[in-house]
């Protein structure tokens, strides 16, 4: 998420780019949404990595059990 200073800076940049007040505020909302989606993707990637690692570890355990049974 953007802090207040970042929001103000983004607002000023959008206004200087020719956006009106409503467009600038919408663009800030869109930017925050994209940031949240990127953070969510990173979290999901980490979870997928952990699930894959656990699955691989489980497969190795099963193979070892078969070998030593």
TrEMBL record:
Protein name according to UniProt: Uncharacterized protein
Record key words, sorted: Plasmid
Gene: zpcE
Organism (species): Bacillus subtilis subsp. subtilis NCIB 3610 = ATCC 6051 = DSM 10
């Amino acid at each position: 998420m953007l802090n207040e200073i970042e929001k103000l800076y983004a607002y000023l940049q959008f206004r200087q780019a020719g956006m009106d007040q409503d467009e600038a505020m919408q663009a800030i909302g869109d930017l925050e949404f994209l940031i949240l989606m990127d953070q969510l993707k990173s979290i999901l990637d980490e979870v997928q990595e952990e699930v894959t690692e656990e699955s691989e570890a489980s497969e190795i355990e099963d193979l070892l059990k078969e070998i030593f049974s």
